[in-house]
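Dear Dr. H.,

I hope your travels went smoothly. While you were away I took the liberty of generating a structure for the chain from your last submission, since the lab meeting agenda had it listed for discussion. I wanted you to have the full record in hand beforehand rather than looking at slides cold. The sequence, exactly as received, is reproduced here:
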Amino acid sequence: MSPDIPTGPDFDPYEDPIAKALVDVVVERGYEAASVEEVVERAGVPRAEFDRRFDGKEDCVRTVFDAFATEFERRVGLAYAGHPDWRSGLRAAAYECAGWMRDNPKLIRFGAVELLAAESEMVRVRREQAFAFAASLIDAGRADAPDPKSISDSTATMAIGSIIQLMIHRLQSGAEVGEPRRLVPEMMYVAVRPYVGEEAAREELTMPPPAGDYSGGGGPEPG
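The corresponding predicted structure, in token form, is as follows:
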């Protein structure tokens, strides 16, 4: 049941001064207004260091976004793979994801809001790859389904869309501000119901968090 877990990124974006400065500047000023000069100044590195590593602002954004996304996928994938069955693995992955969201609200804004203005095809593709990775963890449930052939190829993608809408609605309503982990039971209900049915899905509404540290940690948020 183990997913194809990515190896870590080429550099730790949580510790890299340019990556941290980029996130801060883009979130504070917006993608269009953010400049390489301000990023370099905030990072405290020479412009030559930036030019050595990146071919301009868009390349920097793409590279940094990819590093954060890869590290996120690695953490979630490891949480998933550390359990012997699909539902417990998916539950651990969901708590890891929710913990990461709680600890990194600035990164969520960076990737999900501000980079929409980048109009970069490579950034868009990388964002879709992150969604596809999450969907692959959900779709592993077809092996547990009574009739796997009855599960549509779009089932996992639709589940991801429903979960995102649930999270947006609940967080914007103020019901769960600051603690997305409280949404995990509902997220799990939505994810597993198409595969194992209503009765099993309802069990997820009262399941406790898994043992272990699935907090989404692993590095301080930029800024």
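Two observations you may find useful: The radius of gyration is 18 Å. The chain has a mean pLDDT of 88.

With kind regards,
E. W.
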